[in-house]
Amino acid sequence: xxxxxxxxxxxxxxxxxxxxxxxxxxxxxxxxxxxxxxxxxxxxxxxxxxxxxxxxxxxxxxxxxxxxxxxxxxxxxxxxxxxxxxxxxxxxxxxxxxxxxxxxxxxxxxxxxxxxxxxxxx
Length: 122
Prior knowledge:
By secondary structure, this protein is mainly alpha-helical. The protein is built from 6 helices and no strands. Helix 1 packs antiparallel against helix 2. The longest helix is centred in the C-terminal third of the chain and has 26 residues. The radius of gyration is 24 Å and the shape is elongated. Keywords: Coiled coil.
């Protein structure tokens, strides 16, 4: 099992996409342990969450790549908790549609103010 994980590590280093590597490695380890264990131990030994040590720098890069839509995962969508963002001091991603609506509202208000100023001059 360790040999397989080591070979996977070498293959992913050549592929040079670390974001998917961490997710894929966790999923493969989970599947290996799930089918390697007898049925009576599967539920006990396979937790819902898999904890994996990753350097903070790599986590920041991964979160920024996810926020900026620079990475695509073919698996389940990635959930990034608010607590993790707070610990790493990474702000929540802004919704562009919401920003556009705010800017459009400001444009409408400025046009109204401009028209009022023109009416005052006349």
